[in-house]
């Protein structure tokens, strides 16, 4: 389903080249595939998350007409001897607010729900950016947030029910979270209005004003996948860090009265920066660096992570938990970079890394067979990656 979402639903490379950050688009579900996202989040699973996690605002919140509902309206304060007090949501009071038109929001749901975590890992691997998924549940035609814009692109997956959307377009191109100005006046008329139904997908670029509301009396459940941006500001900030390797950049600036020294420094700095900007591989290097530094999703592997050594059990399940790991081959070696760490391995490890970096769940036995490597050697490599926090193992 994850690969289908990127390739078959969004269009793969065409989405990156034509739509991402540029245009809104609806991707309707075929009539026989309206339940294609049902496995990502069911109402039962949402209830279980609300029942079993300590969720406090703003991560869990209710909103109506662009205003956050005060927690006093639906929570009860609980105190503990060894924990901080908690404003615990009360199911009957939450339901009362929802009947009155509120929208239920749960942020970063991928951290709590494995099916959505798998979706996020796939999106991050394909799109090479960070992704956070929020869930929204609503029952009435009242808008939870009114007309607003986001500082990141959004991919919306309609899980069940229906949601009415109005798209107004942008008033400031490519706005940022930290910006020099803030646009707070929405356009008066929408440029598009439509209803998303179960299985449909919507892309909304950052900075595009929009509003959404459920059909009256019918529960709507949808996910929004917020895509972190990679802007020129991000690249230049990364480039400044890279230039720390240069003595001319690290040294003290010439004093205000030293005009000759200032002219000399500016010439050196301009030359260094221009050389980097003229490198046709600069942007690729930036993305590779960000990918290699990107962290893990989960990875607890008890009891194996505490053992002296990983057992050589061919049925032991294995999965890389760093979705944007980078591999490079050169000569007789292959290099793996993940979570700001680097391993230089024998070329024989290349088939193992090819399998692991797809993010698929595999086994020690499969890795040994596919790479024609003794099981003991595979277990040693997996144990090393496990202890570095980039890989997880489970019982069959």
Automatic annotation (TrEMBL):
Alphabetized InterPro entries for the sequence: JmjC_dom, NO66-like
Residue ranges of every copy of the JmjC domain listed in the record: 86-244
The keyword Acyltransferase is annotated on this UniProt entry: no
Pfam families per the UniProt record, alphabetical: JmjC_2
An example Gene Ontology molecular-function term: metal ion binding
SUPFAM superfamilies in alphabetical order: Clavaminate synthase-like
Cofactors that this protein relies on: Fe(2+)
Gene3D superfamilies the record matches: Cupin
Keywords annotated in UniProt: Iron, Metal-binding
Entry annotated with the keyword Metal-binding: yes
PANTHER family: MINA53 MYC INDUCED NUCLEAR ANTIGEN, RIBOSOMAL OXYGENASE 1
Protein name: JmjC domain-containing protein
Species: Actinomadura logoneensis
């Amino acid at each position: 389903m994850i690969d289908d979402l990127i390739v078959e639903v969004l269009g793969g490379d065409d989405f990156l080249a034509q739509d991402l950050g540029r245009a809104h688009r609806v991707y309707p579900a075929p009539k026989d595939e309206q339940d294609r996202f049902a496995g990502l989040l069911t109402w039962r699973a949402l209830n279980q998350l609300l029942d079993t996690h300590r969720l406090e605002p703003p991560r869990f919140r209710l909103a109506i007409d662009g205003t956050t509902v005060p927690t006093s309206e639906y929570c009860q304060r609980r105190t503990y001897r060894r924990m901080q007090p908690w404003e615990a949501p009360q199911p009957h009071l939450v339901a009362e607010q929802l009947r009155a038109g509120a929208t239920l929001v749960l942020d970063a749901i991928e951290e709590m729900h494995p099916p959505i975590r798998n979706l996020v890992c796939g999106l991050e691997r394909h799109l090479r950016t960070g992704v956070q998924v929020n869930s929204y549940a609503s029952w009435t035609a009242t808008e939870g947030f009114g007309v607003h814009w986001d500082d990141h692109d959004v991919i919306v997956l309609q899980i069940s029910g229906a949601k009415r959307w109005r798209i107004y377009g942008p008033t400031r191109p490519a706005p940022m979270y930290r910006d020099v100005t803030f646009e707070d006046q929405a356009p008066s008329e929408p440029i598009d209005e439509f209803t998303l139904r179960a299985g449909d997908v919507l892309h909304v670029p950052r900075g595009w004003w929009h509003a959404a509301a459920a059909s009256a009396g019918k529960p709507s459940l949808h996910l929004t996948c917020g895509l972190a941006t990679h802007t020129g500001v991000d690249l230049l900030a990364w480039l400044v860090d890279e230039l720390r390797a240069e003595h001319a950049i690290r040294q003290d600036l010439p004093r205000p009265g030293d005009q000759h020294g200032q002219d000399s420094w500016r010439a050196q700095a301009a030359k260094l920066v221009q050389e980097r900007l003229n490198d046709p591989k600069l942007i690729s290097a930036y993305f590779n660096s960000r990918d290699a530094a990107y962290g893990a999703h989960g990875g607890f592997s008890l009891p194996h992570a505490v053992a002296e050594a990983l057992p050589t059990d061919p049925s032991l399940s294995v999965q890389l938990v760093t979705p944007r790991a980078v591999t490079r081959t050169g000569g007789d070696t292959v290099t793996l970079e993940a979570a700001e760490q680097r391993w230089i391995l024998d070329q024989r490890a290349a088939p193992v890394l090819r399998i692991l970096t797809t993010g698929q769940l595999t086994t020690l036995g499969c890795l040994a067979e596919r790479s024609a490597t003794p099981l003991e050697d595979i277990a040693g490599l997996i144990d090393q990656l496990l202890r570095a926090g980039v890989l997880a193992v489970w019982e069959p």
